[in-house]
Design a protein that fits this description.
By secondary structure, this protein is mainly α. Strands 1-2 form a two-stranded antiparallel sheet. Strand 1 and strand 2 form a beta hairpin.
């Protein structure tokens, strides 16, 4: 048998296939896999999830402000009337918050991947942040369920004020001190891996540390009572302003950074070094 002589079009076809493969990896939002399928761009989806968090948080804030201030839990009749009047608004807020938690799960998974692909040795710390974040989501959803239960009970013609009080006190702790402990853990771990990997700008890691400290300081609010007008009450305004909101603002900031970095085509120094060393 004689070896087949190369044909004139072989090189062109080979280069064309290679070019097609490279083109497949450069399409916006996807990367080409060996099977021909595309995997979502982690930077894009991390950013989109953060933008969704921002929009949903704004919508929830507007609805919550329109509901007004809850009366003291000791005023049974006023409490029943308030919750019955705002039952629909409460359920809308919980629906928004549930979708927001879904976006947070996407963000947490994307953040973990952004760090792990640059510094695989930090994976256990990114898993710590991811796991604590998932527990925070779970606790929030349970708190949402308690708040929804109170809203559904309030529209009952024979609503039980003691049941409304119990459900309210339960979700206040979940939205307050319990969530603060979890967010402090998420923020501290996120700040460490950000500064260690340089996968994101240094300032985002420093801000994460600040958020962690704020959440730790907010933990003692569980002893602040249940008055909704008190700044230091359990799950009150103080927790929202100085603990929960700063973390969500950090999430949005990281998402914007990832989207802007992707549009510019730039990569962090640590990622370029890892690619040069053959890690990525």
């Amino acid at each position: 048998m004689t070896p087949r002589e190369p044909r004139a079009g072989d090189g062109q076809r080979g280069s064309g296939q290679s070019g097609t493969s490279r083109a497949g990896t450069s399409r916006a939002g996807t990367n080409r896999l060996g099977t021909g399928r595309r995997t979502p761009d982690v930077s894009l989806w991390t950013g989109l999830a953060a933008v969704a968090v921002a929009l949903l948080l704004l919508a929830e804030f507007v609805v919550r402000q329109s509901a007004g201030t809850r009366p003291p839990l000791d005023e049974s009749e006023a409490l029943v009337d308030f919750m019955a009047t705002n039952s629909t608004k409460t359920l809308i807020m919980i629906m928004i918050d549930t979708i927001l938690m879904g976006a947070l799960i996407v963000f947490l998974a994307g953040f973990r991947q952004l760090i792990s692909k640059v510094r695989p040795d930090l994976e256990w710390i990114t898993d710590l942040a991811f796991g604590a974040g998932l527990v925070f989501v779970g606790v929030t959803l349970v708190g949402d369920s308690l708040e929804a239960g109170a809203a559904l009970e309030a529209v009952n013609p024979h609503a039980d004020p003691s049941a409304l009080r119990s459900l309210t006190e339960g979700h206040m702790l979940m939205f307050g001190s319990i969530s603060c402990v979890l967010l402090a853990l998420v923020s501290a771990a996120s700040g460490y891996v950000t500064l260690a990997s340089r996968a994101l700008p240094v300032w985002t890691g420093r801000v994460a540390y600040v958020v962690a400290v704020l959440n730790v300081l907010a933990v003692p609010t569980m002893f602040g009572g249940t008055n909704d007008t008190s700044f230091v009450s359990a799950g009150g305004v103080g927790v929202a302003v100085f603990a929960t909101f700063p973390w969500l603002a950090w999430v949005v900031a990281v998402g914007i950074v990832t989207i802007r970095g992707r549009r510019r085509g730039g990569r962090p120094d640590a990622q370029r070094q890892a690619e040069a060393a053959g890690v990525l």
